[in-house]
Amino acid sequence: MNFRGMLRRIAGAGLALAAVGAVLMSPVTATAAPADAGPASITADPSEPWDLVYGATKAFGTVRWHARSVDVDFTLKASYCRRLYVTPYDANYKEYPSRSTSLHCDTTKTGTLNLVVDIPGGPAHVIACLQDGADDWLTCEQYDRP
């Protein structure tokens, strides 16, 4: 191998090393997640189906648990006059303010009741109840945060 060939190989290897070094030493640019997206390790809020039946009256839907509240999506198929009440509780069964539908008579109503429990971890339980037109409790069921 002559001297010129050796210089070309060394120069070629030097250029290759310089290119690799430039890539490794350059600032890293990455696409940032939106500010409201949060860390990638956070999973979706848990949810679960629920239902209450009293005679021909049916109430059902989904309980969606959040960090400091719970949403109760519902469909109330009222036979006679009925109202849906939902009460949240913390892990020690301290009661927080209830929410309810208005009184519905022989009709179907859908909606969402949002119950705020502004404590770390939010509500641990909700109790859903059906009430009649005379404000008597008909049936209740407890649903626990998964």
Describe the protein's architecture and organization.
The chain has 146 residues and is of the alpha+beta class. The protein is 16% helix and 44% strand. It has 1 helix and 9 strands; from the N terminus they run H-E-E-E-E-E-E-E-E-E. Strands 4, 5, 6, 8 and 9 form a 5-stranded antiparallel β-sheet that branches. A hairpin with a 4-residue loop joins strand 8 (125-132) and strand 9.
Between the first and last Cα atoms, what is the distance in angstroms? 75 Å
Helix content: 10-25%
DSSP, total strands: 9
Could you describe the largest sheet, including whether it forms a barrel?
A: 5 strands, antiparallel
Rounded mean pLDDT is: 83
Structural class: alpha+beta
Outline, from the CA principal axes?
Answer: globular
State the order of secondary-structure elements, H for helix, E for strand.
Answer: HEEEEEEEEE
User: Uncertain segments of ≥5 residues (pLDDT<50)?
Assistant: 13-24, 28-33
The Cα radius of gyration reads 31 Å
Helical stretch tally: 1
Strand content: 35-45%
Keyword list:
globular; 146 residues; 4-stranded antiparallel sheet; 1 helix; alpha+beta
Q: What's the arrangement of secondary structure elements?
A:
Blueprint: H1 3-25, E1 47-54, E2 57-65, E3 69-77, E4 81-89, E5 99-100, E6 104-105, E7 108-116, E8 125-132, E9 137-144
Antiparallel strand pairs: 1-2, 2-3, 3-7, 4-5, 4-6, 4-8, 8-9
Summarize it.
Helices cover 16% and strands 44% of the residues.
